[in-house]
Structures are given as C-alpha cells and as structure tokens.
Amino acid sequence: MTELTHIGPDGRARMVDISGKTDSERQALATGRIRMAPETLARALSRDTKKGDPLAIAELAGIMGAKRTADLIPLCHPLPLTGLKVEITEAAEGSALQVSATARTTSKTGVEMEALTAVTVACLTLYDMLKAIDKSMVIEGIELVEKSGGASGDYRKAKP
C-alpha cells in the first residue's frame, strides 16, 4: 500500500491513495455552538421566523453539506454515507444552540470531515436564518467529539 500522505514523491499535493485499505464501518460525532441574544434564541426555539423554521432548515442544510464534503474540502475523498443525523438543541448553558452531527459509512476512510462539515453548514445556516434579528451571533467550538472504526482506531475527546 502507498504511504498515506497528501504529499507525492515530487513534493506536490495529491489525494491519498487508499486503494490498499479495506472497507470497514466508521462513525464520527462532531459538535458546535452558535451563541446569540436571548431574544434570538427564543425566536429560534419557537421555530417561527419570517424565513421559516430555522432549526429544521439548518438540520437539512447540515445533511446536504455533509454530502458535498469532497466538493468543499480539497483532497477529501467522496464517501458513500450510510447514515447522517444532525440535531440542534438548546445548549445546556448560555444563550446558544448546540449542533451535533453523527456520520456513518462503510468505506476505506473515515467520516470525520463529513460530521464536521455538517455542523459547520448547520451553524452557518442558523446564522443566515437569524441574522435579521441578531448579527452579533458567534459560531464556536466546532470539534470532533468521537470517532470509531478504521486503522487508526477509536477516538474520544478527553473531558476538560
């Protein structure tokens, strides 16, 4: 199998050759937040704005974004997603929405980028849906929380 690197023998960028890897079940969970004014949060949670239900639209946008990850991230492999779930809930603390995405595949490479892309696109969609109410919203903390499967093994973010 070729070395797994984005740098070719000539020193130029290339897509990693994964042809020698075997398919396996892989899953990744990513999360992020969007902080906003309490009034904006109340409007979002009411699911009734002039643009429609911001949570439902952002969840759908996250799914659609994850399906386009290879088009957005240079050198990222296109993957057949076998499952993708995006959930938006009120954050446990502060005036914010918590976004989480779980991506699944049976493939030769992982789905971390798809989960992270889903969260990012969902957060950006929430911003777009609510910006007429609050332009000072802040998207933060987009991170991989856990992943399973593949040659590199399982990962779980350490608790602070």
TrEMBL record:
Domain of life according to the entry: Bacteria
EC number: 4.6.1.17
Active site feature: D128
Leader sequence residues: none
GO biological process: Mo-molybdopterin cofactor biosynthetic process
Ranges of residues in domain Molybdopterin cofactor biosynthesis C (MoaC): 15-150
Pathway the protein contributes to: Cofactor biosynthesis; molybdopterin biosynthesis
Catalytically driven reaction(s): (8S)-3',8-cyclo-7,8-dihydroguanosine 5'-triphosphate = cyclic pyranopterin phosphate + diphosphate
Keyword field contains Ribonucleoprotein: no
The keyword Lyase is annotated on this UniProt entry: yes
Keyword list, A-Z: Lyase, Molybdenum cofactor biosynthesis
SUPFAM superfamilies reported in the protein's UniProt record: Molybdenum cofactor biosynthesis protein C, MoaC
Binding site for substrate: L75, C76, H77, M113, E114
Assembly description: Homohexamer; trimer of dimers.
Function: Catalyzes the conversion of (8S)-3',8-cyclo-7,8-dihydroguanosine 5'-triphosphate to cyclic pyranopterin monophosphate (cPMP).
HAMAP family per the UniProt record, alphabetical: MoaC_B
NCBIfam families hit by this protein: moaC, PRK09364.1
Family per record: Belongs to the MoaC family.
Protein name listed in UniProt: Cyclic pyranopterin monophosphate synthase
Organism: Hyphomonas polymorpha PS728
Gene for this chain: moaC
